[in-house]
Specification:
Elements: H1 3-10, H2 23-36, E1 39-43, H3 50-63, E2 69-74, H4 77-94, E3 100-102, H5 111-115, H6 118-121, H7 124-136, H8 144-149, E4 150-151, E5 155-156, H9 158-170, H10 175-184, H11 189-197, E6 202-206, H12 208-211, H13 213-222, E7 230-234, H14 240-247, E8 250-253, H15 254-266, H16 273-289, E9 299-300, H17 303-313, H18 319-342, H19 350-363, E10 369-377, E11 383-391, H20 395-398, E12 406-411, H21 417-423, E13 431-435, E14 445-450, H22 462-478, E15 482-487, H23 490-497, E16 506-508, H24 515-524, E17 528-533, E18 553-559, H25 568-581, H26 585-602, E19 613-618, H27 625-628, H28 633-638, E20 639-642, H29 645-660
Parallel strand pairs: 1-12, 1-13, 2-6, 2-7, 3-6, 7-12, 14-19, 14-20, 15-17, 15-18, 16-17, 18-19
Antiparallel strand pairs: 4-5, 8-11, 9-10, 10-11
């Protein structure tokens, strides 16, 4: 299809008067992926309109009979709402009959949470168990919203069918609109959305709707879907490897174990000796581990040795006997949850949580999983311990991509396609890829490398931190406005902050920092410095922009390269990758995640064609050929490297002189 014919086809669905740079190329690629049933990897920088492009391409393929139903999967609520807004625009523009089902989490879609303050503070795990109990009739109370929606747990009520019909006629509706409508009719918004999904052309939800088998099976059964007739889009796909590992990993603290013991004792449960023994063993192993690892650092332990010790001390017959005991304790925990509900308490059960966790911990087998303990410092300075389970294999969750009719994995920074194909376990024979060039004026972005700095582990010392702080102070003096400074870890951030002289308000990322509050503070100051951790909540998927979408930052400074921390768990990952990927193990375990984090962190700077600013990499390793070759061509060509901080400052000053003649500087 030539460009003129492509534009004509696109205009039937594309709701905007013009195209962004390279947008037609993206639409054409996505159209071919949907049409031919392939797996497409797309690296398309911020500013190319990825969401509307794939929606347009899907509708083009569908109009020709080449597509199934579309499942759009996002990592954050903001991304989900982008799809909601775009599909509404398409319908208003084209007049197409389009039905969309938009899922948020069950708790966000639950009207009972608004009525019962206790439900806001319980863990999501406890909320789901409580919801399941209400629906099954396990409690004396029932959920009227659920019963008003489904008869006998499966048949839609007349009221529910009428509301679904109303949404189809009015839609697509935003999730909050569906919530309000269902609430006014006394219906469960989540179950109504599941009913709606059976009639939907587009289903939007979090990654979990594809990656977690129980959720995927539930939604697809209700939507009358099978993977073979689904076209899937994974937004922000650079985060998939880590996301998949995280959802298959878990931790349990000794605090929770002690709470489970108290709960069992208070509610008359017998046979909880295994939990007392577990807490004792975890504390013992954790104390021993502190001789070789630091606080908040994982130390590997043997699953078999720990379970054998518990079996022996508890006088059990073997592993099956232990698992049976844990199943009993989990059931008792659910009984306690029921009693608490009747007592008017929050529907929590530490006993059920601990028993369920330990059973999962035991069933997870090496080499795809490793087991560990770690010591953690509490808010009051006391030490407690955690027992953990870490998945090493992203493809355990992401291989589902191969079962979809077609799939597009896209991100603004999907650098290094081989890494994603291998680590996610994608079918190489079906993979096509597209890497689009940087869409904004490159003269508006200056990338500097400080050749005298590094965060390399072997070189860390007080003298290094003092040197970096001094050089950073000089750079901050030269760079005006709002600057974001990112370090590889909280440890490095703390070391630098203690030595840094900041000439403007400082906003520091902490464990409980809220992104929206940080952005409001940034907007309130014309000059400030935001300090965060690369790979943390302020460095990925967050738009530090004004109300018109223009970038607020004048610079992003990355102190050191954000390589994964060297721990026993990470060493296990390297060994696992050596078995799977051979010579590329170190690249996939170390370099690719570092590049991924670097790209996302630097991406906070330029958000539109008028934005101008500096990316400063304070690590000499960024200029080494082995590292540079992994960067996009525009980065490689634009790197300006200096050992002298004075020369870095001159580069900044010259850029300001050039930009001042051309207009707005962030």
């Amino acid at each position: 299809m030539d460009k003129a014919a492509l534009e004509e086809r696109v205009k039937a669905f594309f709701p905007y008067p013009g195209f962004r740079p390279h947008q037609l190329e993206l639409i054409s690629f996505a159209y071919r992926v949907f049409k031919s049933g392939r797996i497409g990897l797309v690296s398309s920088p911020c500013g190319t309109g990825k969401s509307i492009s794939v929606l347009t391409a899907y509708l083009m393929a569908r109009s020709e009979g080449y597509a199934g139903r579309l499942l759009a999967l996002t990592r954050t609520k903001n991304q989900l709402e982008i799809y909601c807004r775009e599909i509404k625009r398409v319908k208003e523009y084209s007049g197409l009959s389009i039905t969309a089902a938009m899922f948020k989490s069950k708790r966000e879609m639950c009207p009972r949470v608004k009525l019962d303050a206790k439900l806001k503070d319980v863990s999501y795990h406890d909320f789901l168990r409580y919801c399941r109990g209400l629906k099954s009739g396990a409690y004396r109370a029932s959920c009227q919203f659920y019963e008003n929606t489904l008869l006998n747990g499966w048949k839609p009520t007349g009221r529910a069918r009428a509301v679904v019909d109303l949404i189809v006629r009015r839609g697509p509706l935003m999730p909050n609109e569906v919530y309000s409508l269902c609430e006014s009719y006394g219906l469960c918004p989540y179950e109504v959305t599941k009913l709606l999904s059976s009639r939907a052309d587009l289903i939007v939800g979090s990654y979990n709707y594809a990656l977690l088998t129980p959720i995927r099976s539930s939604i697809m059964a209700k939507a009358r879907l099978k993977p073979l007739i689904v076209d899937a889009v994974f937004d922000e796909a650079h985060s998939l490897p880590r996301y998949a590992i995280d959802i298959l990993s878990d931790e349990l603290s000794t605090r929770s174990m002690r709470m489970a013991e108290d709960e069992a004792r208070n509610y008359g449960v017998k046979g909880f000796e295994v939990l007392r023994l577990l807490a004792r063993k975890v504390v013992g192993e954790g104390r021993k581990a502190l001789s070789r690892v630091k606080l908040d650092e994982e130390a590997l332990i043997s699953r078999d040795k720990l379970t054998s010790w518990i079996i022996r001390k508890a006088k059990l017959k073997g592993l099956d006997d232990l698992l049976e005991q844990l199943s009993f304790l989990e059931d008792e925990g659910e009984r306690i949850r029921h009693v608490k509900v009747e007592e008017g308490k929050a529907p929590t059960s530490y006993l059920a949580r601990c028993a369920s966790f330990l059973a999962d911990w035991i069933r997870a087998t090496p080499p795809a999983y490793v087991h560990y303990v770690k010591a953690v410092e509490g808010v009051n300075g006391e030490t407690y311990w955690k027992l953990g389970l870490k998945c090493l294999d992203s493809s355990s969750a992401t291989s589902i991509v191969n079962r979809f009719r077609s799939a597009i994995l896209m991100s603004g920074t999907l650098w290094g396609f081989d890494y994603y194909v291998e680590v996610l376990g994608l079918d190489k024979a079906r993979v096509s890829s597209l890497s689009l060039p940087y869409p904004f004026p490159r003269e508006n972005r200056l990338i500097l490398v400080d050749l005298s700095s590094t965060s390399k582990y072997e070189k860390r010392c007080d003298e290094l931190w003092a040197k970096i702080a001094s050089r950073l102070t000089e750079l901050l003096k030269a760079i005006g406005g709002r600057v974001a400074v990112y370090t590889p870890s909280y440890e490095v951030l703390k070391a630098i902050l203690g030595r840094l002289k900041v000439d403007r308000p400082a906003i520091v990322e902490e464990e409980h920092t809220r992104i929206d509050e940080v952005i409001e503070k940034v907007k309130a100051f014309n000059e400030c410095v935001v300090f965060g951790v690369a790979g943390g909540k302020l460095s990925e998927g967050v738009d530090i922009t004004d109300d018109k979408g223009r970038g607020l930052l004048s610079a992003v400074v990355i102190v050191g390269l954000p390589y994964p921390k060297k721990t026993e768990v990470h060493e296990a990952l390297i060994n696992y990758y050596k078995d799977r990927f051979g010579a590329r193990a170190m690249e996939y375990a170390n370099e690719a995640p570092c590049i991924n984090t670097l790209a996302q962190t630097a991406g906070r700077l330029i958000r539109g064609p008028e934005d101008k600013g500096f990316i400063v990499l304070m690590d000499y390793r960024a200029a080494k050929p082995r590292f540079k070759e992994k960067l996009p061509s525009d980065w490689r060509e634009d790197l300006r490297c200096h050992r002298s901080v004075e020369k870095l400052v001159v580069e900044v000053q010259q850029a300001y002189l050039k930009w001042d003649k051309k207009g707005r500087v962030n």
